Structures are given as C-alpha cells and as structure tokens.
Amino acid sequence: MSSEELSKDTRADGALATIRQDSILLAVANPLRMRILGLLRTEGEKTVGQISELTGVAPGSVSFHLRKLSDAGMVCQDVKPQGDARRSWWKATYQAMRPPTRDDADRTSDADYAYRRAVAVTYESIYERYLDALPDLPQDWHGVGLNEDRIMELTPEETEEMSHEFDELARKWQGRAQHHADHDDRRKVALILQAFPWIP
After folding, report:
1. Residue 109 CB: number of other CB atoms within 10 A?
2. Closest CA to 159 of 112, 200, 196
C-alpha cells in the first residue's frame, strides 16, 4: 500500500490513518466492519469466535469482513507462537482513521460520502446499544454523560479551530484514563464529537 493511498500520523494515543484512496474508503464504509474495527481498537486482539460472540454476527460473516478490512490495511492477523493454531487472532492496524481533510482534497468524492454515511449509521447503532443496555447498568451510570447539541455561526476556519480544541481535550482525558488507578465502577466511555454545517 503506497503512501498516496494511506498516510500515517503517529500521535500520543496511537496511529492515525488518513485514507486517501477511494477503494479503501469504500472497503471501510460498512457499519458492521466499522463495528468490528471499533471492537478491536477498544478491546484489543480478538479471535473470529470472540468477535462473533461479542457482536452476535456469524463467524463466517466476521471472517469475510475481516478479510475486507485486511485488504484495506485496517486490520492484520497476529501470530500467537504458543496459541491454538486453529484460531486466528486479529488486531487493528491503526487506532484512528479519517478521510482526507479539506487541505487534502478539493471535493467530496462518492467514496468519501459513502464513508461518512457509514460513520453516521455506526454512531447511531452505538447509542442504540447503550439505550438497550441502560436498564441493566448500575444506578450510578444512569443520567451521566452528555447528550445535547448547539447551533452557532462560525467560519470554516473557526470550525476547524474548534474541532482541534475538542480533539486536544479528548486526548487529555484519554491519557488521564490510561494512568489513573483502577476502580470497581470504571467503564469504557464512548465520546462522539461532530461538527458540520447545520441544515434546517
């Protein structure tokens, strides 16, 4: 895979892949593949069977989507020297990914549009799974979190600046979460930020 297709930016919280080739964007632009990829990034290496059990997706379908993600360079097999050779372990290649920024591209391609559509569906399903699980969560987790929207008038440059500030804030808390002591009530928390032109 050439640098023109995929560029890598090493950050404090892992590697960020900027996807520049339409074929790679299209390969990733699938909500189920995004869910599998998110699982590997969040939980670490998993076997096909483990992914199937956690997502409720048939092993054959998991294997198919893993091959597509592997072809796109988003996941790879991890050889376990002392593991069971009958089971294949998979891990995410990058901790984050994005399509080209406005500095990288003059227009939104069909592949970029498909990718962003898949992201929207993925975010919706993440929140729906949370709502489904809410009745079974400990009481301390009821009512916490953030669920709001704000509309403001900004220029493209201001929107970009605001996005970078939120990214820095998110990385600060991600670093804090990696270093504080374990607690019984500690859980993984999803933070989803979006900024885009508002259409009434």
Report:
1. 14
2. 196
Ranges of the chain with pLDDT below 70: 1-14, 80-86, 101-107, 180-184
Packing angle of the helix pair 110-133, 31-43 (nearest 10 deg)? 60
**SS3 sequence, the chain?**
CCCCCEEEEEECCEEEEEECCHHHHHHHCCHHHHHHHHHHHHHCCEEHHHHHHHHCCCHHHHHHHHHHHHHCCCEEEECCCCCCCCCCEEEECCCEEECCCCCCCCCCCHHHHHHHHHHHHHHHHHHHHHHHHHHHCCHHHCCCCCCCCCCCCCCHHHHHHHHHHHHHHHHHHHHHHHHCCCCCCCCCCCCCCCCCCCCC
pTM strictly above 0.70: yes
